[in-house]
Amino acid sequence: MRDLDKRTIEKGNIPGKDLMYRAGIGAGEYILDFIKQYSSQHKKRFIILAGKGNNGGDAFVIAKYLAEKTDMQIIIFATSAIEELSLDAKFYAEQLPTTTTYEVREKLKYEDFQTGDIIIDGILGSGFKGKLREYLNNWFTIIKSSHLPIISLDIPSGLNADDGSHGANAIFADLTISMGMPKFGYFNSKNSKLFGRLKNVDIGIPKKFINEIDSEINAIFECDVRKIFKKISNNSEKYSRGYVSIIGGSSLYRGAPFLSAKAALRSGAGIVTLMLPKSIVNSSDYKALIMHKLTDKNGFFSKESIKDLKPLIKTRISSIVIGPGMGNKEQTIPFLAEVAKQDIPIVFDADALNLICKKTEIITERKGISILTPHGSEMRRLCEAFEIESNGRINNAKKLAKLTNSTVVLKGNRTIIVSPNCELRINTSGSPALATAGSGDVLAGMIASYLAQGYSSEDASTISVFIHGLIGEKSPYGIRGLIADDIIDLIPEVTKQITPFA
After folding, report:
1. Given this model, what pLDDT does residue 191 score?
2. pLDDT tops 70 at residue 285
3. Helix, strand or coil for residue 440?
4. What are the chain's domains?
5. Confidence category of residue 168, pLDDT binned at 50, 70, 90
6. Could you tell me the CA-to-CA distances from 381 to 376, 406, 442, 454, 487 in Å, in that order?
7. CA geometry: angle 164, 170, 174, nearest 5 deg
8. What per-residue confidence (pLDDT) applies to 283?
9. What single-letter DSSP state applies at residue 299?
10. How many angstroms separate the CA atoms of 51 and 34, rounded?
11. Which of 71, 46, 72, 70 lies closest to 60 in space, CA to CA?
């Protein structure tokens, strides 16, 4: 990013001042969108903390923008007087409206902050390395103890953008707004929780410069997902929209496959059927679903279920989800192996993954398109089963994708998507609101829906993971109140925000 910045200014003939303006305006737009989640008593003042470099310059552009767009009071605590700032930062500091308070501070005080403040961290940028100066330790201690929302510009102050390392007193952000391109340090799995939500501002770096730079990670933002979406034909009928079959459920877990099935419908599949153990089926209040009852043994699929499966599997199914609520009893392995033999794109989720750990040939001998969707604990079991020596989330996911010839969706903060040829994508949407029972079942149904609609395994996974994460961000129920059923209901609304082809 440092190289791109330099080349854009020197070879692209775009002044640094212009890049700073674009960064500040883009960040201001994200800030206004971010604070929509807060009720009025939690958004009364912006407290902007500005360093003397370019990060501070971005903050001054933002201060002016917010002053024009809101009625909220704006207070700037700066590390330097205006005349001591870098040239570009000084240019924008001198344009601050008179209604904005500008104070040079050596130290902050607890009483500087109050309920209703939103903190914007523009202190240290992506060039920071090493130890904090003593006065900044005071600033960061006060900021972190305020228990107020914190928005960081480019990177939370005190973190190393190259590798994500940091000292004990670095800022923990609720939102990080990247300028130009995301930085590698964002995706250090040990420290990714410090960045909060991620957004990226396009500051106008020429595409030819970007294309000349090698990168081993593709970070997925909304603009990337928007490009993947295709129009739905005006001549569509239900089968051309995709036929998804959800196979799961047991006497222990009855609801999980219904979550997957409803999510597949809400994501655009034309027809969704459920294959369930006969003894657990009562009725469904979701009349759009078609249910098939399979012979079972004590409420779980078994080899006895295969005779009922075979005629159903030979229909016009476009994709399958298998595993939600299925249970991991040994008796189910032959049934899972039979499903895996089918040359239909399959999402292996939940207990299907646990059963694969007991018999790895189920996936290694499979010929069709496969997607594995483990969370952290399931991934650890898969690594043990496939004898993958743990070497970080990214490397583990790559090895599993290669060994199983599958697309791997490793769920969690910054969900990782790896194709069978080890193309790596990292999702940037998400929120702790998604850490709720059934959330993964919903995601599996979404992925299968986009598979059925004709998207590749990588693109189906990318669309689904991003929308799923964005629902967590947009939750009208806050972080604590969202449940899996809500996620399903919000799929159409959030999809419409991303693409006109929803």
Report:
1. 79
2. no
3. helix
4. 2-215 (3.40.50.10260), 236-498 (3.40.1190.20)
5. confident
6. 9, 17, 22, 31, 28
7. 85
8. 65
9. T
10. 23
11. 46
Give just the sign of the alpha carbon dihedral 404, 406, 407, 413.
negative
Coil/strand/helix, residue 427? strand
Half-sphere exposure of 418 (CA within 13 A, CB side): 24
Tokens of 56: 């501070």
Residue type, 378: E
Output DSSP code: residue 216.
S
91 contacts: CB under 8 Å, gap ≥ 6: 17, 57
In this predicted model, what pLDDT tens digit does every residue of 176-225 receive, in sequence order? 999 999 998 999 877 788 899 999 999 999 999 999 988 888 999 999 99
Is the predicted pLDDT of residue 315 greater than 90, yes or no?
Answer: no
Average pLDDT over residues 383-404: 96
Paired strand residues for 499: none
Phi, psi of 249 (to 5 degrees): 90, 155
Strands 407-410 and 175-179: unpaired
So what's the pLDDT on residue 127? 86
Q: What SS3 state is found at 372?
A: strand
**By the 8 A CB rule, do 80 and 136 touch?**
no
Residue with tokens 């043994």: 297
- Give the pLDDT score at 377: 97
DSSP H helices in 314-375: 333-340, 351-358, 361-364
Confidence check: pLDDT of 420 > 80:
yes
The answer to whether 256 touches 273, Cβ cutoff 8 Å, is: no
Distance (Å, whole) CA 144 – CA 160: 18
Residues 147, 138: Cα–Cα separation, whole Å: 16
Would you state the pLDDT for residue 193? 84
Q: How far apart are CA 467 and CA 452, in angstroms?
A: 17
DSSP-assigned beta bridge partners for residue 21: none
Average pLDDT of the segment spanning 283-297: 86
